[in-house]
User: What shape does this take?
Amino acid sequence: MKVLVTGSAGFIGFHLVSDLTEQGIEVVGLDNINDYYDTGLKYARLDKSGISHGMIDSSRPVRSSTNRLYSFIKLDLEDRNGMMKLFKEQRFDRVLHLGAQAGVRYSLTHPYSYIDSNIVGFMNVLECCRHNPVDHLVYASSSSVYGLNRTESFSVHDNVDHPASLYAATKKSNELMAHCYSHLFSIPVTGLRFFTVYGPWGRPDMAYFSFTRSIIEGAPIKVFNSGEMWRDFTYVRDIVGGVVRVLESPPITDRSWNGARPDPARSSAPYRVYNIGNSSPVKLIDFIRVIEERLGRKASMEFMPMQPGDIYRTCADVSDLEKDFGFRPSTSIEEGIGEFVSWYRKFYGA
Assistant: This one.
C-alpha cells in the first residue's frame, strides 16, 4: 500500500508518518512548510524523519535517509498542476489529507489563507482523487464545525450549520465538498472531526504550548474567559490510533440512508463523518493547574474576556467511532501533559 499524507511536516502528520511506516506502509509526505508558526520546528520534525533541510525538493519526492518507506516533497496544495503530476506519478492507494491552514483566531486577520489552503487546496485533492482513483480518502475536519451548538456532547448526527469562525466554515465546506465528490464519483471518503489535539512535537500556537513556554520563562499567560471554558483535550497518540483504524476501512454505501430524514454523518454515497475526542472535557483553568504541577512552577495569569470565534465548551460523542471501529481515546490529561512537558524540556533544553 502507498499512502499520501499531506501536512506531513505538521504535528499530527509527523506522528502518522511514523506510525504508518512502522506498520510497513509506504508513505509519501507533502507539506509547503509555511511560516504560520516556527518553521524550525517543522524542519526538526522532518529531520527526525530522516529528511534533512538540504534534501528537500519541490519537484519530486526525496527518500528519507533513515526510513526506506518514507519520501517527502515540498509542495503547495494550491498548486493544481504540481498536485496532479504527483498523483499521476505516484499512484496512491489511499490519501490522508491533514494539510490545512489551522487556527481560529488567525482566521480573523488572515481570511484568504483559509480560502487558498482549505478550499482551493482541498478542491485540488478531490480532483486528484477523482482523476487518479484511490481506495479511500480520509481528511481532517474539526470540532470547530459545531460552532454555536449548545448540546451536552457533540454528535456527528447533529446539524452543524452555524460556524463561529471562518476556519470552522472552511472545515464544514470540506465536508460538503467531500460528500459531493463521493456522491458524484463514488470516492470512498471519511471526515474526522478532531478535538483539541495536544502532545509532543505539538503546535506552538496552541494554548498548552504557549502556557508551558511562558510558565518556564516566568512570563504571564493570557487566560481567556477567566479560564471558564471547557475543552475536550485529546492526546495525539489517540488521534493517530483512530485515524489509522479508519484509514484501513473505506466506507460503503449505506442503503438504509433516508433522504426524507437525512443523517449528516452518513449517506447513500460511500461517505462517513466521525468525531475523535477524549469525551472528557476539562476546564481551562484546571488544565493550567496540571501544566503547573508537571512543571513544578506556578503560572502568572492575566485574565481576558472571551475571544471572537471561541467556543465555550467542546465534548465529543465518539459512540459511532467505538461502534464501527472498537476504538475510543483514553489517555488522561495528567499522562498526556506529562509526556508533552518531558518532550518540551528535552527539545528546548528548558
Observations:
- The chain has a mean pLDDT of 96.
- The CA atoms of residues 261 and 267 lie 11 Å apart.
- The chain has eleven helices and 14 strands.
